[in-house]
Amino acid sequence: MAQTIITNHIVKPSSPTPLASKIHKLSFIDQMQSPEYIPFIFLYENNRSTSKQEISKRLRQSLSETLTIFYPIAGTVVQNSHVDCDDTGAEFVEARVHAPLSHFTQNPNFEELVMQLFPTADGTETRNLSVKISFFECGGFAVGLFLSHKLVDGSSAAAFIRAWGKTCCREASGIIHRSRGQTHLSVHPSFDMALHFPPSHLPPPSMYLGVKREKITTGRLVFDKEKVEMIRKLEASRSEVKDPTRVEAVSALLWRSFVAALIKAGTGTGTGTTLFPAVHAVNLRPRVGLPDRTFGNCSLGVPVVLSLDEDEGEDVVSRLRATIRGVGDDFMKGVMNDE
Questions:
Q1: What is d(CA 163, CA 157) in angstroms, rounded to the nearest whole number?
Q2: DSSP 189
Q3: Does the record bear Transferase in its keywords (predicted)?
Q4: Phi, psi of 308, rounded to the nearest 5 degrees
């Protein structure tokens, strides 16, 4: 795919971070995260004839305002201990793609092509946020970004992106208000995760810790609303749980299908028991009494272990629900004691 890099900016917070907030301590869960980045991609049609220059300007200005609120993202991580909120800022790249947006959305190799809409790895080595705006020939554009997993989980990342979007669209009356030239949140993110999950003397984890270098294949499965409802009814008929959630039902179906494929291939059919953990990311905020606005990594991957030789009628949904809902204060104490 042919594209041209037009500009490369560093976007800093619109207001300096106060001295009292210059050090943001990492929590125990933050410290456990490997130095990798969470990718997000958003594709837009331009139906309002807004110029590329105006779109870029709005995105940069609103990002600057949003970084004032989520100031740790604009800082520098220091030795897996804390963030120096030094207002280093975020990388902001603007590119021109020599193709229409439909070249991506209608291409069977979409998942490979879309990687070219993200910032390069060079921009993410020292910054917690890198953004790339790609303008297409048709007037549409893409916003690709990398957010440091050392600072955010899915919930915190979503809160940041929503705040940026609201600011950009100037639809901030209920969330953001301005006073004396400053930008404030009516419901401000809470940055006290380290008080609830005190940091430890953990060395920085490797990005590839525990990952084997082997050839793997990935795939994407898409279920529409009607299919998901069918799956829920199917799994409810197999389980004591008569109201499985969408996640529980689809997870159970995927695990059954995975095991069936292994059995067909002759894997794990010898002596002994073959165990397969299904890992779910669990949001800890409601389980340990923290508000939704809590910023940082407040989720953990919780394994639900099932064995290959279990009876085909195993109540997978019940096992999933019991394990996930059993996550709470006692679970976290066990994790921290086993550090």
A1: 10
A2: P
A3: yes
A4: -65, -30
Nearest to 323 by CA among 228, 232, 255: 255
Answer whether 154's CB lies under 8 Å from 300's CB: no
Which residue spans within 136-292 are E strands per DSSP?
141-148, 176-179, 182-185, 275-283
Q: What is the pLDDT of residues 292-333, one digit of tens each?
A: 999 999 998 888 887 665 545 568 899 889 888 888 766 666
Return the amino acid letter for 52: K
Q: Which stretches of 45-81 are assigned E, i.e. beta strand?
A: 76-78
Q: Which amino acid appears at position 317 of this protein? A: V
Q: Is 108 left (phi over 0), alpha (psi -120 to 50) or beta?
A: alpha
Q: According to the model, what pLDDT value does residue 309 have?
A: 58
Q: What is the pTM of this model?
A: 0.83
- Spatial distance between the Cα atoms of 293 and 109, rounded to a whole number of angstroms: 37
Class of domain 3-196: alpha beta
Tokens encoding 6: 């037009």
Six token digits for residue 167: 């600011």
Burial group, residue 131, by CB count within 10 angstroms (0-12, 13-18, 19+): buried
The domain segmentation of the chain, as residue ranges, is: 3-196, 225-337
Helices (H), 91-224: 102-105, 110-113, 154-169, 193-196
At the top level of CATH, which class does the domain 225-337 belong to? Answer: alpha beta
- For residue range 2-26, list pLDDT tens digits in order: 889 999 999 999 999 999 999 999 9
